[in-house]
Amino acid sequence: MDSALIPKGVQRCSLGKFTLLIAVVGAVLLWGVYAMLLCWIKGLNQTNMNDYYGFALWIWADLAVIALGGGAFFTGFLKYIVGKDELKNIINYAVLIGFICYSSALLILAIDIGQPLRGWFIFWHANVHSMLTEVAFCLSCYFAVLTIEYIPLILENRQLNKVPFFHHLAHNMHGIMAVFAATGAFLSFFHQGSLGGVSGVLFGRPFGYREGVFVWPWTFFLFTWSAAAYGPSFTLMCTKILEKASGKQLVKDNVVDLLAKISGWMILTYIIAKIADTLYWALVTAPARGHTLMDFYSNNPVYGIWILVLEIVLGGIIPAIILVVPGTRRNGYLRMTAIILGVIGVSVNRWVMVLQVMAVPVMPFDFWAMYYPSWQEVATTILPVAYGIILIALSYRYLPIFPQEPELNPVD
Amino acid sequence: MKKAADHTKPKRYGMVIDLDKCTGCGACMVACFAENNIPFKKDESEKLLSITWMRVYKLSNKKKYPDTDICYLPRPCMHCEGHEGHSPCVSVCPATVTDYSTETGIVSQIYTRCFGCRYCMAACPYHARYFNWWDPVWPKGMEKMLSPDVSVRMRGVVEKCSFCYHRYQRAKDKAYVEGRTDVEEEEYQTACTQACPARAITFGDLNNPKHKVYELKQDPHAFRLLERLGTNPKVYYVSSREWVRKSGDNYLKHEEPGHIATKH
After folding, report:
1. What residues of chain B score a pLDDT lower than 70?
2. Residue from the list B88, B115, B255 with its beta carbon closest to the beta carbon of A119
């Protein structure tokens, strides 16, 4: 029924099957929308946040999706600025994932603020000293860039592309995409960094606080670096998921290998910097404020030293080694293991830099604050996942996202 | 000329709280509630959701009888000066809602500008900032008893101790009407200071040698909470008990309070 909309040379499942998938995921989406409306109408008392836990699941989700969405800016940077032309075969999907991640982040932020109707105050009354101000400006601008990068993909839909104006617009936008890729990389450097700065500048919170250069704490650079390192891994993970779901190979092995290799080297260099940062923090920064490393990892039911090991060893060193060594990287099973471990590693990093910062007592007579999210928080965090699946499903079905798909899966 | 110079001299309002005098009665908290229209709920058993601009902590030396000892520590907003006014919360607020006044040393909060991101709460190591998780609901008739000098806050914004700033404004108005340029010490006192039956709290201009706090803060037993973080708070505590003074900051095993160089 919708075959006129499906790109030429590819095969898609029946409309009925597709509709069923959209309906199931749509139900989850509606559950999230219901929770979102509850939060907007009744307020943030619908959450399990409290005065010790002002930042919680949503801010983690924000930081995590922005880190994982970093594959868009870094792959764009590699393709258009560095000149890795093979990545043209995966850049569309990276842009789509980035678009989903950033629009989700903006939505979560809109739910997370106590007075959503005043959200624009962050631009109107901007405080130039605040990392969140920089986040808001760069995030919004970069989302605009991602939208600009996504538009030509939409215009390449078979029917839309028949309209001469849309055809030429898409063509011309592709022609100047390097400008947007460079702009995106520039903006991403700052907003990824300023998200790292969010906890890094908290000199009242010794767990999060880091020294640095000029106004930027070390976490500023580490967050940018880690997003560039782990973002491409997430793009590869999503590609694999879609390949499994569609039962088709969508990207050639050499492209996957190249992106995995770059991601591996970035993770390796990042994790060396992260280890150096952790050592300096544990041996110099925290002791200067009266804390030992183990003060942050003991006397509480959740946060043991295991979380540091999980983040750095399992989520950093191991995936870096697997992805850097050609033999292990070319083994599909090991490569996917490394990619999953990396995605977990960067997510754990964002978790501790938000939730553990809140949990650690600072006043000696204070206590560890524990937190678990309410169902409304969980539902609104799952909401972007459902939205992402729907947008990927629609884009995959109706847009030529993977240029190598017709060649890899010839239709008889 | 001298008078003019006094007029322009910046003030640093602050407190000195004698912990050896504090009995933990909570009168300061109650006075603060009444003075500042602080909302409360029917059920206040979950303290992490209670708004207490002034909160009294109970400290223990964690020793067994007969060496056991306790101390009550009233904790208002510390009105941190940080480094040149960059207090932990002021520098992070994305919408310039909170500000450090170089005229008074008071950290302000514009409730109608706050959009509830709670970054300031994350930044404050003293947990002196509170979020309005609900709209205030006053018991029937109580809305007529609210102070007209302090605006009530709506759901979704952060609030905190203001050192009863409206009292400073009132005192300034009075001084102006009487042809004076400056506010006398007794003309501007916070509600908690006046309510304390043990006179444990002393309030005034930390820069003014004529104010009691100027001398009290120089007590060899005076300390501030978490000085090592560089927050530069303007609330001083005094206690003759070493374990209490040690409870004011974090120390490594080999370190002794009073022997640590602080940034301010």
Report:
1. 1-8, 258-264
2. B115
